[in-house]
Amino acid sequence: MIIWRTNQSPSDGLYSEMLESIQSNHKNKEQFYTTFYDENNLNIFNSLLPFYGEIISNMMTDLGLQHISRYQYTVWMQMNNSSTNSHNPHSHFVGAESISWVHFVNVPNQKCFYFQDSNNNKTYPDQNTGDFIAWPSWAIHGVDKVKQSNFDRIICAGNISFTEYNFNNQRVISDLNEEKTICRWHIYK
């Protein structure tokens, strides 16, 4: 399921910014914290985007996609612990997303992240602090509840969506409607 992996930790300064952002914005202590829907907490992204942009560029180069595609990526941050709920099985594919990723910024020894197959079997990939893994966006995955007390499990995650793909004299361009509910692909030869 995993198509690319690396291990890289954020700088101490970036990690401190992440912790500060979580501590000042995590209000409902029974829910896992996420910046996914949080438009009020955009300052942290000024620091996260360059860090993840470099990792994603390296990944796209290794996958042979950097020179034949244009893409955009999203990033969000999440925190859960033994007091919060977990993240139920879901996928990131809504139509435009091709590659999804997670960076295990600070994780317990317990493997919490899993992929789930059609028979509800869970597969737990290696997930150590600093690991960054990528997979097809349609893959169903989830997060088990953290068992270790007094430990904040922190991750960053995101998606990569192709806006253009050029290979073998074929050009494919995608666009979304204004509501971002329909993705159209245009193929030019």
Structure description:
The chain has 189 residues and is α+β, with helices and mostly antiparallel strands. The protein has a single domain, classed as Jelly Rolls. It contains 2 helices and 13 strands; from the N terminus they run E-H-E-H-E-E-E-E-E-E-E-E-E-E-E. The chain has helices spanning 12-25, 43-62, and strands at residues 4-7, 33-34, 69-73, 76-80, 87-90, 97-106, 113-116, 122-123, 131-136, 141-143, 153-167, 170-176, 183-188. The strands form 2 sheets. Strands 1, 2, 3, 4, 6, 9, 11, 12 and 13 form a 9-stranded antiparallel beta sheet that branches. Strands 5-10-7-8 form a 4-stranded antiparallel beta sheet, with no helix packed on it. A hairpin with a 5-residue loop joins strand 7 and strand 8. The longest helix has 20 residues, at 43-62. It is globular. It starts with a strand and ends with a strand.
Summarize it:
This protein is α+β, with helices and mostly antiparallel strands and 189 residues long. It contains two helices and 13 strands; from the N terminus they run E-H-E-H-E-E-E-E-E-E-E-E-E-E-E.
Using only C-alpha atoms, the radius of gyration works out to 17 Å
According to CATH, the fold-level topology is Jelly Rolls
Poorly predicted regions are: none
Estimated structural class: alpha+beta
Helix content: 10-25%
Total number of distinct structural domains = 1
What is the approximate shape? Answer: globular
What is the second-level CATH architecture? Sandwich
Terminal-residue CA separation = 31 Å
Largest sheet: 9 strands, antiparallel
Task: Tell me what portion of residues adopts beta-strand conformation.
Answer: 35-45%
The number of helical runs is: 2
Mean pLDDT: 91
Q: Care to count the β-strands?
A: 13
The CATH superfamily appears as: q2cbj1_9rhob like domain
The CATH class is Mainly Beta
